[in-house]
Design goal:
By secondary structure, the chain is of the alpha+beta class. The protein has 2 domains: 76-171 and 420-465, D-Maltodextrin-Binding Protein, domain 2; 173-293 and 328-419 and 490-517, D-Maltodextrin-Binding Protein, domain 2, CATH 3.40.190.10. 45% of the residues lie in helices and 10% in strands. The chain is built from 19 helices and 13 strands. The strands form 3 sheets. Strands 5, 6, 9, 10, 11 and 13 form a 6-stranded mixed β-sheet that branches. Helix 8 runs antiparallel to helix 9, helix 10 packs across helix 12 and helix 10 (271-285) packs across helix 19. The longest helix is centred in the first third of the chain and has 29 residues, at 22-50.
Length: 520
């Protein structure tokens, strides 16, 4: 135990009493610093000298800045980016969103504000004033022509866009993604049937007569016919399988398939649905037999553009015998289609009602409708009308796990649409220095999307390039056009497009469909 303190314990010595004044402390610290520096030099200096000094970028800065200004334009005076908005079709969302991230890193002086919508949905949003972007990039010019027709009937005085000021971004055809056994049966039945209707009418509205009366059937029966009934009508004429090819599905299996079910989206929201409606109207108003001119020796040559019945058409072709039949030119087809549609609006509405009024739903999104094909399987859907770039990832899933589920094929119908995803600068008559700066930035953004790098990235997203970039030459692992050819993918596209109507007929088609199915 320590003795008690008496209050006289010695105090600790101060620095001064120890002989360490301020000057001595300073000298000590200086010596310590010199020793530390020598140790650093000895242990780390040699290694530092062994590593090459980083190359200077001063010589490259001018080149980088010049390149950036060539692509992005000059920096803004206030340091804030030039911002503008772009309304685009949701079908190309993955590619556009990835591209805008690349563009933001390259061009921090430009900001692109994106809004994605369905094709006709975006057109209606522009018409109502809900959206007022600087750039509109729908899926196809069909959307543009539809909007301009509505714009005119609404009496809008402001010029929306200049049709000639068009920038194609990427290309993608309208296709049918279908289970392989269904595809074989479709092809066999279409080749065997005596009906001379087009393939769109015959498949999407199987067994629905063109003069069918919807009032004679219940609403739930206003849908396409059954596989087994279609088979019964054509069994005697079905082609035999080629040597080594497995037999066609039996009638018992077709009974299990029930109705013919090819899904498509709502024409009032999605471009793919609008294009299906257009192709159905084309088949109805101008059947394939009427897309050819009569032989010169025929008494009624050239007068059958608006022929009446299948029987009449059959007589015409039989009378023609071996003589040459001339395919009408595109302008003639367009005129004949327009005339046929105008003359057959009422029966077209009744036929669409008989075919589609009883269907439970029409999805708004092409992408979601496409995914449902694999998610819900062949008992729910025989196929889906979609865009090629949305079909390729699903084919890739099938390809990765062969045998895990039934095979799926991509089919390129005749005719079909090849969508070029055009982009337009809107409000061309509006003026102002700020707007001109935004327009310059918008043009640079569109040029960036058409650059070789972004077009190659578009290929990896399943799009065909809008430029002269070759799909065949771009031989990389992610090029699904080359990897999925066994599923029917065509790297070199060979399809026929229908004649394109403009103006009021497009708006009429949508109105006819709304009235036929009783929904928007």
């Amino acid at each position: 135990m320590a003795p008690p303190s008496n209050g006289n314990d010695p105090k600790p010595l101060s620095w001064t009493e120890l002989g360490l004044g301020p000057r001595s402390v300073l000298v000590f610290l200086l010596i310590l610093a010199v020793v530390a520096g020598w140790l650093y030099h000895w242990f780390w200096g040699h290694a530092a000298r062994a590593v090459p000094a980083p190359a200077t970028h001063m010589a490259d800065v001018g080149t980088v800045n010049a390149m950036r200004e060539d692509v992005c334009g000059p920096p803004t005076p206030n340091g804030r980016p030039t911002a503008f908005s772009m309304l685009y079709s949701e079908e190309k969302r993955a590619w556009i969103e990835a591209a805008v991230d690349d563009f933001a890193r390259l061009c921090p002086n430009i900001q692109v504000k994106l809004t994605a919508m369905g094709g006709l949905e975006s057109a209606d949003a522009l018409l109502s004033g809900e959206q007022r972007p600087l750039i509109w990039a729908p899926t196809d010019d069909l959307n543009v022509d539809y909007l301009l027709a509505r714009w005119k009937t609404r009496g809008r005085e402001e010029t929306l866009l200049e049709p000639s000021a068009r920038t194609a971004l990427v290309r993608t055809p309208l296709v049918v993604l279908v289970w392989y056994d269904r595809l074989r049966m479709f092809q066999a039945l279409l080749s065997a049937q005596t009906s001379r209707e087009g393939s769109w009418m015959s498949s999407l509205c199987a067994l629905v007569p063109r003069d069918g009366d919807p009032s004679a059937s219940l609403l739930q029966d206003q849908v396409p016919g059954r596989w087994a009934d279609w088979y019964d009508q054509n069994a005697a004429r079905l082609p035999r399988p080629a040597a080594g090819e497995r037999p066609l599905p039996s009638r018992e299996e077709l009974v299990r398939w029930d109705r013919v079910k090819i899904q498509h989206t709502a024409p009032t929201y999605s471009t793919s649905g609008f294009e299906v409606l257009y192709l159905l109207a084309y088949d109805y108003a101008l059947p394939p037999r009427q897309r050819r001119s009569a032989p010169a020796s025929s008494a009624d040559a050239g007068t059958d553009a608006d022929a009446g019945t299948d029987a009449d058409a059959g007589t015409e072709e039989e009378d023609a015998g071996p003589q040459e039949t001339v395919v009408l030119g595109n302008e003639q087809l367009r005129e004949a289609f327009a005339q046929g549609l105008e003359a057959k609006k009422a029966p077209l509405q009744r036929w669409l009602q008989r075919c589609q009024a009883g269907m439970p739903n029409f999805p708004r999104s092409t992408e979601l409708a496409t995914k449902r094909l694999l998610d819900e399987g062949p008992l729910e859907f025989d196929g889906v009308v979609t865009f090629e770039h949305l079909a390729l990832p699903l084919l890739q899933r099938i390809d990765r796990y062969p045998g895990a589920r039934p095979d799926v094929r991509i089919n390129y119908p005749e005719p079909t649409f090849v969508n070029e995803h055009p982009a337009y600068l809107l409000w061309p008559e509006s003026q102002g220095p700020e707007l001109e700066v935004q327009r310059d930035a918008a043009r640079r953004w569109l040029a960036f999307l058409r650059s070789q790098e972004q077009q190659q990235k578009a290929i990896l997203h399943g799009f065909r390039p809008a430029t002269d970039l070759s799909l065949i030459d771009y031989d990389v692992d992610g090029n699904l056009f080359l990897n999925l050819r066994r599923h029917g993918v065509q790297p070199v596209l060979q399809v026929t497009e229908p004649p394109r109507l403009t103006g009021q007929p497009l708006a009429d088609m949508v109105d006819i469909w709304k009235a036929a199915v009783g929904r928007n």
